[in-house]
Amino acid sequence: MVSVISSPWTTTFEGFLQRCRNSTVICSPYIGYKPCRRLAKIFGESLRSDLTLFLLTNLSCENMLSRATDVRGLIYLCEAIPNTDIRFLPNLHAKIYVSDEQAIVTSANLTQGGFVRNLEYGLCISDPMIVDRIRTDAQAFHTIGTSVDLAQLRLFESIVDELSDLQQKDEKAAVKSALRLKFEEKLREADEEVFRIRATSMSAHAGFAQTILFVLSTKGPCDTKRIYREIQSIHPDLCDDSVKLVIHGKEWSQAKWKHRVRHAQQFLSRQRKIVRVDELWQLS
């Protein structure tokens, strides 16, 4: 069964959450504070301590500073729902909500604007086969995101608070140059911290390996060059061609990220998860 959802759709979303018994997967580039509070309240009222929430969003510095993605809401969710797995992916654009027996695919983000103020439109689906497919795809998106724990969220929030304070002082100051420079410096530091967490997560085989599996499962057999292109489109912030591989002080022509992808390929091949046939990599 498929039904149409148009804004405002708060009541529909709350009913969707109340019917959840095991897990919910949410993919939303922007996430607001009030919807997080409401989500936590509904899950808390269910009296199910084993409920799992998989959440994928875009934790760019710009999004956090503007509160388009409100870190305070994510912190609240993690504290209220112990089994919360938050990840972020910079180029996420899909808005998908999946529970045990239903899936919602919509234009609406998990924000007050998405629920009430904006003109949004979507579909609520209860056909088991389609719901299973949407859940599989949403969880695949979640898997290739960067995991963020509660401590890292609190660090992000402290940085956002400091940046917001500097921004307000800058707007009120008669002479803005010094404050503006300090704000821009802190903003660069925040961007670097977001990148550091992303890069650390992807530095081991597992990070790029998961993305290779995602590419091969969605695109089919690919040669290595195609895999490079697909991964670069998914993780553009981590795939900088200007950063070259350096071994024992010698710089090589190959980009550092491509070297890591090749290592991930070899790792997956040894694990017998992928195989190369006629120059094309495919799932085993």
Automatic annotation (TrEMBL):
Which residue ranges traverse the bilayer? none
Source organism's superkingdom?
A: Bacteria
One MF annotation (Gene Ontology) recorded for this entry = catalytic activity
Q: Where is the PLD phosphodiesterase domain?
A: 88-114
GO process terms (BP): phosphorus metabolic process
Cross-referenced Pfam families, in alphabetical order? PLDc_2
InterPro entries given for it? Answer: PLD-like_dom, PLipase_D/transphosphatidylase
Residues annotated as coiled-coil are: none
Q: What is this protein called?
A: PLD-like domain-containing protein
